[in-house]
């Protein structure tokens, strides 16, 4: 069983830090039932299969919900009827195995082990009833003829299985947010914080799933035959997605004042509303309303594709996009300069192209804007060939332009690439400093290990790289104090006193070895009276 | 992780006025979304009716495409010339068209009028946006909301030799003769007067 408290650094293996799913330490001599329970259902053992098992069951429930809704669409259900039946059978088998396993292992569960009849208590428990409801209709239809619509309704009860995941997460959330205000609870749910717990993760996953579904729907809507058949279904899907995103947006705007930097009730919210992620959130819901109320003013085809912006909502969950944003913001002046050079080159060469080619090909090089098109296509090395020079000077200009294009267009790409790598390097240095702080007390707890794990994942650090960083820090901390940078010495009072002693000894040594007469002569001009007094005091004490 | 982002001390866990305002605001927003969604759904239902109208026209005209060249065809206004040339095999040239007997030539306007008379099945079809009989227009135009629910019939003409593998689409006009077999395409105009392709057929 994994210890959740602090461990000395020397006892912490790098694998313990980096791999959250380390192998659970379960006594191999346990009886079969206890072993099975420990591996599959015990939530208190780190590294067992409980989380994976729950995750797969949750995924199967979500797939079942989708399948039930898709079965209501004849255009989808009829051609793939057999696949739906196979999937249903597969789900029932898995749910049945899960139910029987839970029933068999009920005496090992703390919730039922102290009861007279643990298995009977399990059967009567709300979760077990939900599990039974999920599988019972399948067996019922084998014995009793049930109307297909009632059967489908009964199968919808499988949705309740999701409560097996939701309820524990909700209980954890309530415990974490005891004595906190309503707004703080909303904040904990929608913003990353240590109060969010599992429920915040579920919320994020839920939003991400809906982003993917709605973007997928927008893409499919552009296929004429699919849109023709499922037009109404797409409307319902979009309404649900917008309702969810609107709710999320309201919750974020309401609770953002709990975030540092956004405390002011009005200005804080305005500031938050102006953030990139908030603008994306707003843009993901606006087209829905514009489509209905302003469709005579705005082009609907554009608005429909505009809904694809919802994909940007996912950037909130990725560290890479925030790094890229930082890089662009940092390198903006240099990027602007390179864009300016590019524009200059485009304008100049298009003027030359117009000058050389207009007389020979007045239809193609009709004016400078058309020549700009030719210049950009040539500079970017695309070369469609629809406009090409025929005069010797025009061809010569094109050759120069094409050669310059290779270099000029590469500048912004190279800039971004080097700045990106530089930013990553900076963030790794930052992480190194954080790890240094963590390791200062020679102890590492579960949260700190989790932090290192998250940062390693965010910065795409391999097992080997993170190991190197930790070893480097450990090596630095074992260095003699004199070799340490002054700010690190200053942090440790013991080191500071020792360092002071070393410096005094060095001054005394200097006083003994140097030529005192010449030193005093030069010092009269260069040292302040207090510095001179201190020097004399140190030398007197050494004599 | 930002544990310090919100303090835990001295806060009321009970709902205050601003919390209630927020809850009401959320309810209002969700109601607005559902209402907007229901408007969109109602428009969608109307578009489905218009689609069904378009499909009914395609069904009827495709079915009639064989029968109307028989001498005993019931609707003379839509009848074709029995010895017509199949446009798929060979397009009628200008000369051939001029040679055809102008007195016997039937036009789309006459055929349309007889098809949409109240005793004909297609005459029962209504435009759900206006609750008027279905109207045919030259093209859907998103700038004109009154065109919602209208139908567009285009003639599919073989392209000139210079453009390979492409057809030319022209609106079927009232004055167009229909005594020869022809390829047609039907569009409907949706609630915002954008075209939705229903299908191609031979008439």
Describe this entry's structure for a reader.
The complex is a heterodimer of chains A (543) and B (203). With 543 residues, chain A is mainly α. Chain A has helices spanning 14-18, 32-40, 50-70, 74-77, 81-105, 110-113, 118-124, 126-143, 148-156, 163-176, 182-190, 197-221, 224-255, 267-273, 276-293, 300-306, 319-357, 368-379, 392-439, 446-458, 463-478, 486-491, 493-513, 516-526, 529-542; strands at residues 7-8, 443-444. In chain A, helix 13 crosses helix 15 (276-293) and helix 17 crosses helix 18. Chain B is α+β, with helices and mostly antiparallel strands. Chain B has one domain (16-202). Chain B is elongated. The chains are: A mainly alpha (543), B alpha+beta (203). Chain A binds chain B through residues 179-184, 187-188, 191-195, 224, 228, 231-232, 235-236, 238-239, 242-243, 246-247, 250-251, 254, 258-260, 288-289, 291-293, 295-296, 299-301, 447, 451, and chain B through 1-6, 8, 11-13, 15-16, 18-19, 22, 25-26, 29-30, 32-34, 36-37, 39-41, 43-45, 47-48, 51, 142-143, 145, 191-192, 194, 196-197.
Reading the helices and strands of chain B in chain order gives HHHEEEEEEE
What are the low-pLDDT stretches of chain A, counting only 5+ consecutive residues below 50? Answer: none
Determine the oligomeric state from the structure.
Answer: heterodimer
Distance between the termini of chain A: 64 Å
Report the sheet-strand fraction of chain A: under 5%
- What structural category arises from helix and sheet content of chain B? alpha+beta
Residues in helices of chain A, as a percent range:
over 70%
Tally the beta strands of chain B.
7
CATH superfamily of the largest domain in chain A: Voltage-gated potassium channels. Chain C
**CATH fold assignment of the largest domain in chain A:** Four Helix Bundle (Hemerythrin (Met), subunit A)
The structural domain count of chain B equals 1
CA gyration radius of chain B, whole angstroms: 27 Å
Proportion in β-strands of chain B: 15-25%
Shape of chain A: flat
Return the CATH class of the largest domain in chain A.
Mainly Alpha
Q: In this structure, how is the largest beta sheet of chain A organized?
A: 2 strands, antiparallel
């Amino acid at each position: 069983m994994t210890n959740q408290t602090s461990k000395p650094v020397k006892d912490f293996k790098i694998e313990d830090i980096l791999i959250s799913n380390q192998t659970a330490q379960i006594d191999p001599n346990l009886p079969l039932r206890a072993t099975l329970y420990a591996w599959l259902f015990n939530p208190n053992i780190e590294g067992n299969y409980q989380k994976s098992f729950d995750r797969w069951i949750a995924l199967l429930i979500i797939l079942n919900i989708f399948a039930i809704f898709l079965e209501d669409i004849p255009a989808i259900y009829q051609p793939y009827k057999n696949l739906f039946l196979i999937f249903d059978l597969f789900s029932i088998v898995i749910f049945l195995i899960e139910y029987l396993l839970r029933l068999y292992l009920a005496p090992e569960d703390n919730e039922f082990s102290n009861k007279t009849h643990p298995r009977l208590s399990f059967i009567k428990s709300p979760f077990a009833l939900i599990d039974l409801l999920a599988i019972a209709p399948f067996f019922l239809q084998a014995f009793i003829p049930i109307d297909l619509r009632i059967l489908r309704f009964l199968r919808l009860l499988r949705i309740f299985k999701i409560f097996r995941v939701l309820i524990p997460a909700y209980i954890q959330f309530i415990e974490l947010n005891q004595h906190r205000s309503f707004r703080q609870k909303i904040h904990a749910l929608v913003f990353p914080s240590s109060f969010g717990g599992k429920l915040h993760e579920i919320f994020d996953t839920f939003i991400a799933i809906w982003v993917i579904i709605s973007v997928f729907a927008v893409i499919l809507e552009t296929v004429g035959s699919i849109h023709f058949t499922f037009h109404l279904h797409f409307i319902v899907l979009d309404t649900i997605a917008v309702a969810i995103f609107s709710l999320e947006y309201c919750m974020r705007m309401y609770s953002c004042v709990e975030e540092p930097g956004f405390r002011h009730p009005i200005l804080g919210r305005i500031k938050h509303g102006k953030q990139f992620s908030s603008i994306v959130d707003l843009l993901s819901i606006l087209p829905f309303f514009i489509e209905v109320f302003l469709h005579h003013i705005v082009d609907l085809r554009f608005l429909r594709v505009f809904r694809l912006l919802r994909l940007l909502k996912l950037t909130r969950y990725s560290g890479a996009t925030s790094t890229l944003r930082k890089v662009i913001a940092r390198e903006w002046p240099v990027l602007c300069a390179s864009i300016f050079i590019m524009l200059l080159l485009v304008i100049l060469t298009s003027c030359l192209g117009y000058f050389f080619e207009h007389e020979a090909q007045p239809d193609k090089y009709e004016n400078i804007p058309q020549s700009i098109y030719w210049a950009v296509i040539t500079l970017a090395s695309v070369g469609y060939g629809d406009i090409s020079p025929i005069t010797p000077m025009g061809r010569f200009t094109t050759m120069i332009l094409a050669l310059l294009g290779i270099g000029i267009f590469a500048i912004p790409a190279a800039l971004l690439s080097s700045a990106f790598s530089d930013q990553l390097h900076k963030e790794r240095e930052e992480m190194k400093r954080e790890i240094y702080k963590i390791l200062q007390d020679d102890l590492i707890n579960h949260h700190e290990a989790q932090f290192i794990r998250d940062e390693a994942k965010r910065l795409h650090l391999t097992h080997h790289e993170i190991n190197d960083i930790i070893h480097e820090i450990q090596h630095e901390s074992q260095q003699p104090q004199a070799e340490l940078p002054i700010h690190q010495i200053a942090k440790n009072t013991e080191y500071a006193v020792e360092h002071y002693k070393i410096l005094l000894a060095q001054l005394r040594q200097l006083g003994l070895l140097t030529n005192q007469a010449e030193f005093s002569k030069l010092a009269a001009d260069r040292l302040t009276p207090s510095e001179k007094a201190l020097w004399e005091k140190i030398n007197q004490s050494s004599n | 992780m930002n544990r310090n982002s919100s303090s835990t001390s001295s806060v009321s866990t009970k709902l205050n006025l601003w919390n209630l305002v927020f809850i009401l605001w959320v309810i209002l927003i969700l109601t607005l979304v559902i209402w907007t969604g229901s408007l969109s759904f109602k428009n969608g239902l109307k578009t489905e009716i218009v689609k069904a109208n378009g499909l009914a026209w395609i069904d009827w005209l495709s079915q009639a495409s064989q029968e109307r060249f028989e001498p005993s065809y019931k609707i003379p206004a839509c009848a074709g010339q029995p010895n017509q040339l199949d446009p798929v095999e060979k397009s009628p040239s200008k000369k051939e068209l001029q040679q055809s007997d102008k007195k016997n030539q039937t036009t789309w306007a006459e055929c349309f009028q007889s098809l949409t008379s109240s005793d004909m099945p297609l005459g029962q079809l209504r435009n759900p946006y206006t609750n008027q009989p279905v109207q045919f227009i030259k093209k859907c135009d998103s700038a004109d909301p009154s065109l919602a629910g209208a139908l567009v019939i285009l003639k599919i003409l073989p392209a000139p030799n210079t453009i390979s593998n492409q057809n030319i689409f022209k609106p079927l006009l009232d004055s167009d003769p229909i005594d020869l077999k022809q390829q047609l395409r039907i569009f409907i105009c949706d609630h915002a007067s954008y075209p939705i392709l229903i299908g191609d057929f031979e008439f």
